[in-house]
Amino acid sequence: MKSNGIYELHLTVREATLAAGTEWPSRFSNWLLIQVGKGTGYWMHARQNLQLEPGAVLILPPESQGSIRASQMGSLSFSFFCVDPLRLMGLVTLTEQGFFQRAAAKEEFVARILAPDHSVAFRLREIFGDRKVTGSLLRLQLLQKFIEAFGNELNYEVREPESGVADAKQRLSEFLRTTQTSELVNFSFAELVNVSRCTPRHLSRIFREVVGTSFRSKRAELRLAQACDLLAFTELKIVDVALESGFQSLSLFNLMFARRYGMSPGRWRRKHREDKLAGMRSLRKVAPMVSAC
């Protein structure tokens, strides 16, 4: 969600041009999709180097340590956008979020490249070239291509459960597979006990097995992620941000937010705006022709 202190732009198309022989650091804290426009270059990493040709799409996991280098023969232009699955609470389930978290954590996933004739690459060229498509429609199209890039793997991850008598773990997995994460923000542990039809103690154990953390920790993570989006992109008062994010009191919200981010929500909002401006200035120094669409 953050990279060098910046709450990154999400599902926003940006463009950059590198002069011959120059590099662009690709370290973002979110998933990154890059499509080469003109020129040739390379994605450089300690464990993997890839040649980038016009039309190719490079998919990088969060916190990638590599960089993109333009060929010595000429400049390199590309379009890119970031995706943060944690901020898709109204569109994806907890199971789908977990898939992307596990994929990013795999050591073997350094980068993935799609050839220019791949269906996702072909469609992205059309999306990036159509300046008339903006706003929500553009963001939905970008998200669709991101999901399609993982199509078969993601479909396997969220496949229908096997037939037969379901136990509590299967009932919980099915619920998380079909429920958008935005609904879990205000979901209580007692309600989840009813869904799973088991004891609270057993639910605590199987929830940690399925999700990788406790119910309380996961719900707090979702609530704080929603709060950050509201702080960053709305003018809501802090107390309204707290209530919209599922916190019943402002004092509890302030306490949990400070524990997670090391500052108050108001200070975080001011710092986000300052860092956003500083980040864009820094990006322009590396790639002078960076712009956001």
Question: In total, how many beta strands?
Answer: 12
In what range is the share of β-strand residues?
15-25%
Instruction: Specify the structural class.
Output: alpha+beta
Query: Which regions are unreliable across 5 or more consecutive residues at pLDDT < 50?
Result: 1-5, 286-290
Question: Main sheet: which strands, in order across?
Answer: 11-8-5-10-3-12
- Structural shape: globular
Question: Radius of gyration, Cα only, in angstroms?
Answer: 21 Å
Kindly report how far apart the N and C termini lie.
20 Å
The helix fraction, in percent, is 40-55%
Q: What's the number of domains?
A: 2
Mean pLDDT: 86
User: With helices defined by DSSP (H or I, 4 residues minimum), what is the helix count?
Assistant: 12
CATH topology of the largest domain: Jelly Rolls
Q: Write down the oligomeric state.
A: single chain
Gross CATH architecture of the largest domain: Sandwich
Supply the CATH class of the largest domain.
Mainly Beta
Biggest beta-sheet profile:
6 strands, antiparallel
Task: Report the order of strands and helices.
Answer: EEEEEEEEEEHEHHHHHHHHHHHE
Task: Give a verbal description of the structure.
The chain has helices spanning 94-105, 119-129, 135-148, 151-157, 168-178, 181-184, 189-196, 200-211, 215-233, 238-244, 250-261, 265-286, and strands spanning 2-3, 6-7, 14-18, 23-25, 31-38, 41-44, 50-52, 57-60, 67-70, 76-83, 112-114, 291-292. With 293 residues, it is α+β, with helices and mostly antiparallel strands. The protein has two domains: 2-156, Jelly Rolls; 168-274, Homeodomain-like (Arc Repressor Mutant, subunit A, Orthogonal Bundle), CATH 1.10.10.60. The longest helix has 22 residues, at 265-286.
